[in-house]
Amino acid sequence: MNETDKITAEVVAGLIRDGERILICQRPANKARGLLWEFPGGKVEAGESKQEALVRECREELDVTLNVGSVYAELTHEYPDITVRLTLFEACIAQGVPRRIEHADIRWVYPAEITAYPFCPADKEICLRLSLENIKKV
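The chain above was modelled as a monomer; its predicted structure follows.
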């Protein structure tokens, strides 16, 4: 695959907080970057806003409804097979309790613990930032 064939995906994720803890999800083994950890979210579909995409993805994959806040981080990451433009939003659960529907595992972790998990490369800079800063509630 050459650079002109590479797909660019608009991806959203939620920095979902419960007090001081953050929700992280382990990708399914059968998907690209399988068993690596990530923040919950997914691809933006045609005709939806980034916030709408995040709400939809978390409803589908975790069975929760989110309140989406401000943008925490935006970045672009080049994988060999895809370029990801990631927007990470501050978020909190408005309704429901997270259930593992699609992911291999889900966990609530403290920011100081986050770098102990093998995250997708696109998320590593965010993980470092989280582990170093004082966490504020949404």
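Residues 3-132 form a domain with the Nucleoside Triphosphate Pyrophosphohydrolase fold (CATH 3.90.79.10).
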